[in-house]
Amino acid sequence: MNPFPIVLALFRKTWLTSALFLLLIAIAMALGVAIIAQERSMREGSARASDPFDLIIAAPGSRTEILFNVVYLRPSAVELIQAETLSKILSDPAAEFAAPIAFGDNAEGFPIIGTTRDMVRHLTAGAIEGAMWQHEDDAIIGANLPFEIGETIHSAHGQGRIGAEVSQPDDHDDEDSHGGLHVTGRMAPTGTAWDSAVLVPIQYSWSTHALMAPDQGVPGELTPDGPLGPVPAVVLKPRGLGDAYWLRSLWQTDRTTAFFPAEALTEIYAYMGDVRRIMSALTTATQALVIAAILSGVIALMQLYSARLALLRALGATRGYIFLVMWIYMVGLILAGAVLGLASGMVTARAISAIFANETGLSLLARIGWAEIRLTLVVIGLGALLAVVPALTLFRKASLSQLR
Fold first, then answer.
1. Which helix (H) or strand (E) holds 128?
2. If DSSP codes are grouped into helix, strand and coil, which group holds residue 404?
């Protein structure tokens, strides 16, 4: 006998209860999928964002803090590399270029980063709309900023924030004001937090903080014997792999620290991985408990239909047929809930990625991978095994005595 007409009849008869059971499974499943997909999205997005920063030199301190300062533009108070040390870094022939990085100001709420022409070209592979800096108070804006080329924007002391809204300057409060910046160009999208920054010549950062007289040299170009100031960090582009390790060893001193971004990211990923494993284990346990509770509810629900199951027996259905009907019914619930949960989890992960991307400036893409598919298969397989228990229970109770 074909069990599917009976199974479909059960679904129609108990559609509201079945829908609630399916929704519970889908929610539990979506939670696990969203956690796994979002963690992978953050890992890949943060790694891509660090790619242009081959080697970072800074004053001794936390590598993670320096990484967040330079790559993800989350500035904090750090020690500075002094001008004489910067001069030695700039003169090292093992590097294609050395780009000082300075922060601490904002342009209408967005972070201002002082750097060099080489760094801007390196980030964008030379793809810049408009013109490079011609004057110290010129600015090149990131791809995500709402300003236009030719516009003048207000700059002031104080950290900007990625994902900030445009803030209107107070005309009566000039204490922290640095005046106007003239937007001369816009960078092509880089998929990094620098898409939400205002880039200015490093000389601008020095002069506005009284570390150098204004209009010293070509904006954004430095020479080892030219006028220099202290900076929080320097990004180096080594000429080759051997040069990269040579530079890292050379500048690992009592006055400076040098590291590859991947070194700091490995520590962060190890922590993220531990959290993901814990969350995944909790999610799997939650899914098992939800499935067990639903199957218990199915048993209670089917008690109300025990007479109808017994009627099937009276009409010639075997006990094995009753078992198959109930098992297919419960596995169908779990299968539909798992698939719905997979889809819902990806939608949730992408929504979270969009929020994180807005807040961090990173390019994040949540997608279905083997980890999510494996989780779905585990839940379906676990549910199919657990469904045997209530199916056997109803198998034993589907006797003709239930008709009396």
1. strand 128-130
2. coil
